[in-house]
Branched-chain amino acid ABC transporter permease (Chromohalobacter beijerinckii), 314 residues
Amino acid sequence: MELSGIASYLISFLTFAGVYAVLALGLNMQWGFTGQFNIGIAGFFAVGAYTSAILTTPSSPAYLGGFGMPFLVGLAGAVIASTLLGLVVGLITARLRTDYLAIASIGIAEMVRLFVKNEDWLTNGVRGIAGIERPFADTVLDSPFVYLVIVALFVAGVYFLVERAYASPWGRVLRAIRENEPATAAAGKSIAGFRLQAFVLGSAIMGLGGGLYAHFFGFLSPEAFMPLYGTFLVWVMLIAGGSGNNRGAILGAVLVWGVWSGTELLTGLLPTEHATQGAALRVLLIGVLLQVILVTRPEGVFPEKPPKLITRKR
């Protein structure tokens, strides 16, 4: 019984870490490649999750739904919806930099969360959407372990595509924009255009992470997309793992989610009279971890290593 409980915990842990790895890879596309300071991750996360849930859940008089689409169609809808939102936001903010982009993006994310919270006809508001099924429902393959394998395959696929993009000429332009924008503009590159492309692609990946989260957890509510869970943790994961390094983004997701889960176990041991301070203590411990990493390894566990240029022999 204890072994089965440990196995169930590990499967749940790795699945959540995989979902956050997808979010971290999306953020790496924006911040690690191009230097776009997006603090609105939770908004794209929420749009992807709710879109997939609405497309795949059975009909309900409480909210929009009843389409009963397959799992992959739900994920495709999540990616498309997040892409469209990223395009709209990117067109507005593509020319903004650093703190101005941060203010704009976090404001948009809060608008999305409040919209989800208050538009009962669409999302069922604070009561949330329940009954979101995993793929292969009501079959022998309907198990948490199978879903872990599915999430791992999506993580591997996203990693492969993002890694190829990083090593491509397109990725070199993004890094050039991050390092020296005036020189890149002088070379004839469209700064706003490349920024917009990176922002939209990163947003699409975040939407995919939202769809994977919805089908694993099976229930959505606005509280799941608070800035702490949907933005702050993802940033810590990317910084800890190594900004600009895709392997670092995945490793950072596993490490930081392990610390976050471990702090939940530790705060559960607190006396009853101090239980209410447990959540604040967990955030404090994550903040301390971030400070330690910034002091000891400012470039993360896996620092960025630009791909080697291949020279052809004449």
Remarks:
- Residues 237 and 256 are 6 Å apart (CA to CA).
- The mean pLDDT is 90.
- The beta strands are 129-130, 219-220.
- The longest strand covers residues 129-130.
